[in-house]
Amino acid sequence: MPLALSTGHEVGLGVTALVFIVFALASSFLLPRFRSDYPGRGLLAFIVVAFVFFFGMLTAVEVFGSEDKHGEAAAAETTAAETTTAEQTTTAAETTTAETTTKAETTAEAKPEETKVPVTETEFKIALGSTNFKAGEITFEAKNDGKIPHDLAIKGVGDKTKEIGPGQTDDLKITLKPGKYELYCTIPGHEQAGMKQTVTVS
């Protein structure tokens, strides 16, 4: 029985109970077989020993039972500490998520607005209200005020408007990084005739 117990106080309680049981069995069955007058003249000693075992058993129950309560209290404290840690971890995770969401919303709100640039094309000139722009998404709103078709492109980028007839418009939307760029008309001979303009993106 003691070997089947797991914790220290349970083993102690089991050993005490085993000794008490052995004493009781020996006094009831074993010793009377060898001494028919047992306990005989040793009655007083038998009573004293019996009381010692009895009170010893009560003391063992009290002591080891108290240790068990302490163990339960310690386990309860450990569980409470683990619960508190889990709650703190959850709160920290929720706070981090909220901060990340707030930052994402702030970044979205801080996104710069699209820059729109009116461009007027004539024979043979490209005119803009300004040649300095902030980096980002820029829409060049090209209008042909001339008498022959034109278009608008940016050298080294590849994008361009459709061919724009007299009095018509078309947009060239593009994202530009800081640097210098040259706007020009791709129709043969128009760039050489003067249809080009350098702009600065910062």
Structural features, described:
- This protein is α/β, with parallel strands linked by helices.
- It folds into two domains: 2-108; 115-201, Immunoglobulin-like, CATH 2.60.40.420.
- The protein is 47% helix and 22% strand.
- It is built from two helices and eight strands; from the N terminus they run ααββββββββ.
- It has helices spanning 8-34, 43-109; strands at residues 115-122, 125-128, 132-133, 136-144, 153-154, 169-176, 179-184, 196-201.
- A four-stranded mixed β-sheet has the order 2-1-4-6, with no helix packed on it.
- A hairpin with a 2-residue loop joins β1 and β2 (125-128).
- The longest helix has 67 residues, at 43-109.
- The two termini are 87 Å apart.
Outline of the structure:
This protein has 202 residues and is an alpha/beta fold.
Please give the order of strands in the largest beta sheet: 2-1-4-6
Average pLDDT rating: 77
The secondary-structure class comes to alpha/beta
Low-confidence runs (pLDDT<50, min 5 residues)? 1-6
Work out the count of structural domains.
Answer: 2
Give the DSSP E fraction (strand runs of 2 or more residues).
15-25%
Order of helices and strands: HHEEEEEEEE
